[in-house]
């Protein structure tokens, strides 16, 4: 794949400088002045690219690799071709992430549609009572409601809606078409295109003529350094708050119900649904397309496999999977037994034929 004009290669960072900045050790000092301009996967990396390798399973990809440097740990260094300089690190993926951020800083958050613009676009609407600190960019067609507060260095994308009384910290990006209401947002938060924050939670009570709506008068609290993916929805609390903890990363198309409390530094992958009033501890990882029941607790450091159905509490540090979710080793045993039975039935059917 050729470099595209959306994220063109930069002028370049010397290999020695890059190694210092990402905390890696340059194995070939003679390559110190090589310039790194971009990132690439191992199999198609060219001159000027940096890539990384995590296991010997990728060894075949090295046959077509022409990278200017490759990140790996000490155990994998012997399999790297002699013509490719090695940057040694105990965490190649982490070092690669740092390198990518240095090479493509503009790709670290949604880009401005009007990059040459500054201040408030004349095509935006900002209520006179809203308070904006210095260096806030408000792009065309954005709407900022009464008494909203937006901190220094924020960018409000085109068509975004910031509701009345919303408070947004400093260095945040609210991308195009996102809606934020009934919410308090910390510093350095990224909310991607089309996300919906702070709308009604799903609450109804049976009545004589059908379902009666229960008022949702809580808030959404989003702490510092949270990232929320495109078209994700986070409902405000019924009477308490929905809370997203510091450093948590939420993928696209995730649904988080009212009164949910998610801890610090969690990872929640696309199409996860978390029902109301569930508590998720710190450092929890939830795989894609999993469903989490309401009013349960997932303990600190737990991991939920993709496409699981979590019906009951998960203890801290445990790995669960399946439907219903259970300890991963038990789930894998059940899968193996099911496959064995299916294979046995197949062979029996073949003999009868």
TrEMBL record:
Entry GO MF terms = N-acyltransferase activity; UDP-3-O-[(3R)-3-hydroxyacyl]-glucosamine N-acyltransferase activity
Give the EC number(s) listed in the UniProt record. 2.3.1.191
Catalysed reaction(s) here are: a UDP-3-O-[(3R)-3-hydroxyacyl]-alpha-D-glucosamine + a (3R)-hydroxyacyl-[ACP] = a UDP-2-N,3-O-bis[(3R)-3-hydroxyacyl]-alpha-D-glucosamine + holo-[ACP] + H(+)
Q: Which organism is it from?
A: Ciceribacter naphthalenivorans
Named in its record, the pathway it takes part in is: Bacterial outer membrane biogenesis; LPS lipid A biosynthesis
Q: Which PANTHER family does the record cross-reference, listed alphabetically? A: UDP-3-O-ACYLGLUCOSAMINE N-ACYLTRANSFERASE, UDP-3-O-ACYLGLUCOSAMINE N-ACYLTRANSFERASE 1, MITOCHONDRIAL-RELATED
The protein's matches in InterPro entries, at most eight in alphabetical order, are given as: Hexapep (IPR001451), Hexapep_transf_CS (IPR018357), LpxD (IPR007691), Trimer_LpxA-like_sf (IPR011004), UDP_GlcNAc_AcTrfase_non-rep (IPR020573)
* BP GO annotations: lipid A biosynthetic process
Protein function: Catalyzes the N-acylation of UDP-3-O-acylglucosamine using 3-hydroxyacyl-ACP as the acyl donor. Is involved in the biosynthesis of lipid A, a phosphorylated glycolipid that anchors the lipopolysaccharide to the outer membrane of the cell.
Cite a single Pfam family from the UniProt record.
LpxD
The record's listing under SUPFAM superfamilies reads: Trimeric LpxA-like enzymes
Q: Lineage, please?
A: Bacteria, Pseudomonadati, Pseudomonadota, Alphaproteobacteria, Hyphomicrobiales
Supply one GO CC term from the record.
membrane
How does this polypeptide assemble, per the annotation? Homotrimer.
Alphabetic keyword roster: Acyltransferase, Lipid A biosynthesis, Lipid biosynthesis, Lipid metabolism, Repeat, Transferase
Give the matching HAMAP family: LpxD
Name-wise, this protein is UDP-3-O-acylglucosamine N-acyltransferase
Q: Which residues form the signal peptide?
A: none
Gene3D superfamilies referenced in this protein's UniProt entry, alphabetically: Hexapeptide repeat proteins, MurE/MurF, N-terminal domain
The similarity annotation says: Belongs to the transferase hexapeptide repeat family. LpxD subfamily.
Q: Where is the UDP-3-O-[3-hydroxymyristoyl] glucosamine N-acyltransferase non-repeat region domain?
A: 34-100
Active-site residues, as the UniProt record annotates them: 258 (proton acceptor)
């Amino acid at each position: 794949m050729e470099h595209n004009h959306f994220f063109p290669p930069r002028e370049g960072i010397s290999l020695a400088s890059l190694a210092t900045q990402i905390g890696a050790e340059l194995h070939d000092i003679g390559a110190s002045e090589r310039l790194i301009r971009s990132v690439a996967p191992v199999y198609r990396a060219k001159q000027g690219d940096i890539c990384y390798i995590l296991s010997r399973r990728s060894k075949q990809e090295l046959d077509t690799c022409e990278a200017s440097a490759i990140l790996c740990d000490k155990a994998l260094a012997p399999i790297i071709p002699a013509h490719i300089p090695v940057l040694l690190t105990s965490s190649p993926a982490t070092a690669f992430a740092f390198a990518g951020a240095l090479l493509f800083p503009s790709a670290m958050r949604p880009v401005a549609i009007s990059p040459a613009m500054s201040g408030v676009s004349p095509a935006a609407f900002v209520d006179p009572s809203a308070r904006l600190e210095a260096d806030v960019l408000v792009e065309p067609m954005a709407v900022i409601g009464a008494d909203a507060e937006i901190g220094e260095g924020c960018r409000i994308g085109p068509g975004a809606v910031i509701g009345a009384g919303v408070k947004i910290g400093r260095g945040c990006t609210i991308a195009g078409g996102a809606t934020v209401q009934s919410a308090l947002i910390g510093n350095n938060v990224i909310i991607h295109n089309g996300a919906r924050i702070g709308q009604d939670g799903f609450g109804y009570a049976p009545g004589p003529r059908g379902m009666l709506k229960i008022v949702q008068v809580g808030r959404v609290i989003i702490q510092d350094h949270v990232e929320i993916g495109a078209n994700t929805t986070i409902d405000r609390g019924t009477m308490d708050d929905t809370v997203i903890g510091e450093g948590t990363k939420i993928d696209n198309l995730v649904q988080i119900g009212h009164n949910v409390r998610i801890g610090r530094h969690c990872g929640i992958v696309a199409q996860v649904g978390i029902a109301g009033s569930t508590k998720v501890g710190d450092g929890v990882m939830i795989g894609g397309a999993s469903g989490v029941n309401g009013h349960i607790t997932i303990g600190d450091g737990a991991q939920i496999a993709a496409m699981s159905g979590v019906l009951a509490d998960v203890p801290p540090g445990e790995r669960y999977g399946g439907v219903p979710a259970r300890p991963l080793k038990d789930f894998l045993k059940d899968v193996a037994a099911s496959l064995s039975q299916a294979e046995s039935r197949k062979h029996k059917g073949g003999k009868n034929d």
